[in-house]
Amino acid sequence: MLAANFLLPWVFAVAVTALPSHSVLYARDDSISSNDDPLVFDAAGFPDPMNLGQTLAGLQSFVSLHPVDLGVIKGPLSAALKAIGLSAVADDITTAANRLKLAAVIPRSGKQVEVNIDGCNKQLATVGPTSGSPDLGMALKNVSLGTCDGSNLTTGTVQLGSSDKRNFQFSVFNSPDSGFGVISDVDDTVKITNVLDKIEALKATLFEGPQPVAGMPQLYASLTKSLHNPAFFYISGSPFQLYPFLHDFIGTTYSASRGPIFLQNLTLIDIPALIDFTKVDGIQVYKDQMIDRIRGMYPHKKYLMIGDSTQRDPESYGDAFRKYGGDTISCIWIRLVDGANNTDARFAAAFQGVPQNRIQLYNDAQIPALQNVNVSGGRCTL
Ligand SMILES: *[C@@H]1O[C@H](CO)[C@@H](O)[C@H](O)[C@H]1NC(C)=O
Ligand SMILES: *[C@@H]1O[C@H](CO)[C@@H](O)[C@H](O)[C@H]1NC(C)=O
Ligand SMILES: *[C@@H]1O[C@H](CO)[C@@H](O)[C@H](O)[C@H]1NC(C)=O
Ligand SMILES: *[C@@H]1O[C@H](CO)[C@@H](O)[C@H](O)[C@H]1NC(C)=O
Ligand SMILES: *[C@@H]1O[C@H](CO)[C@@H](O)[C@H](O)[C@H]1NC(C)=O
Predict the structure, then answer these.
(1) pLDDT of residue 280
(2) Whose CA is closest to atom 13 on ligand 3?
(3) Which residues make beta-bridge pairs with 362?
(4) Ligand 2, atom 10: nearest CA belongs to which residue?
(5) What is the pLDDT of residues 221-246, one digit of tens each?
(6) What spacing in Å lies between the alpha carbon of 140 and ligand 1's midpoint?
(7) Residues 6+ apart with CB under 8 A from 369
(8) Closest to 146 (Cα-Cα) out of 19, 52, 79, 67
(9) Please, which residues have CB within 8 angstroms of residue 28's CB and are 6 or more apart in sequence?
(10) Which atom of ligand 5 is nearest to the CA of 377?
(11) Do you find a cis peptide bond into 67, omega within 30 degrees of 0?
């Protein structure tokens, strides 16, 4: 599930002390300059409920000061890792600092990001905070793309000043409000993180090349066929600072089943909230909210929910079933992870009110066989 929840707070707590005050850097000019790095997260494109035939996209942007000084996190990171008994060579620290780059940046508040969307007639859209609201560099907005050409994937490009030759792109995954959606967890569902072992999870998150759970890329690729190009949504409790790392991983290892990745908005200066997110309860509430957000965009899709037993996926998916019912939540698949609470009592509580034939708990040896479950034909189990 969410590796980074428990490890990021101290990393950020250390990093923040090394940073200059943000307030002096708040921009007066709200356009993107060469001093800014705009990140626009891959987004879901969905039918505009108010305008038939038009597409909306829930665009989220994060703007920070360019360039990034990785030096500010290397020292504290190395010391903090040593303190918990994880010795790291210089290369590991460089890898870790790169993965956590967004934890070292200085957010730029008040910026408006103009984007161009290929294949849609209303090409120019702006995402940014509404004036006067403190935003810590992060903004989320439904923007209208007008009429799009019907393709399921469109590319957005951030508009820059004429002398700025950099290129910042993102994807919009368009999907109709029908058919299937696959809502997937990340850590220990599609990627091996070992969240139950702090040292192993730190290594997997910060140093090592990310490894898929064996068989899952093939399973997800097969779902694109059996569910007729479903929309994939990845929800992780990890902070958005890990977005570049997770985005690369999903984009390469799950290239047939790409989709937007929803991560938590944890900010550098919001230490109490960061610490709060280490609580399992916070994770469940957050996941429930993201499921609501997806359902809000696509109220008529059916969903296959895939997660694991390490933290709160069963509870969260059970909540979704009880809230939206079996016509919306078709099936729930949960990977049984060794060392997690895999007791009957846990699943009985999590899935109260969910019919047994909607739930498949699976071990790793059963992953290939999941390809044969006829989910679109109404089945969920092996
Ligand atoms: C992230 O931040 C944006 C902008 O402040 C906000 O609108 C959005 O609801 C936040 N998302 C989550 C998951 O908290
Ligand atoms: C988009 O559609 C093409 C065929 O038109 C298909 O091959 C591809 O898998 C689809 N991608 C997604 C994410 O649905
Ligand atoms: C975006 O649109 C969806 C679907 O209409 C809605 O559920 C959601 O609340 C909207 N989000 C924002 C930030 O306006
Ligand atoms: C497993 O979960 C159940 C239900 O929440 C709980 O009663 C039990 O104490 C848990 N067992 C362990 C070993 O955590
Ligand atoms: C899945 O079930 C449906 C409905 O029963 C059926 O029409 C379809 O042929 C089945 N697909 C496969 C691959 O068995």
Answers:
(1) 54
(2) 141
(3) 335
(4) 229
(5) 999 999 999 999 999 988 888 899 99
(6) 6
(7) 382
(8) 52
(9) none
(10) 2
(11) yes
- Which tokens is 98 given? 């790169």
Radius of gyration of the chain (CA): 21
Q: What spacing in Å lies between the alpha carbon of 344 and ligand 4's midpoint?
A: 9
Query: Residue 374 C-alpha to ligand 5 middle, in angstroms?
Result: 6
pLDDT digits (tens, 9 = 90+) for 120-175: 998 788 998 877 677 888 999 999 999 998 889 999 999 999 999 999 999 999 99
Atom of ligand 1 nearest to the CA of 290: 13
In sequence order, the 6+-apart residues with CB closer than 8 A to the CB of 250 are: 186, 190, 234, 258, 259, 261
Could you tell me if 230 and 222 are in contact, meaning their C-beta atoms sit under 8 angstroms apart? no
What pLDDT digit, counting tens, does each position of 62-83 carry?
999 998 888 877 887 788 778 7
161: Cβ below 6 Å to ligand 3?
no
Q: How confident is the model at residue 12 (pLDDT cuts 50, 70, 90)?
A: very low
Pull the structure tokens for residue 241: 């600072």
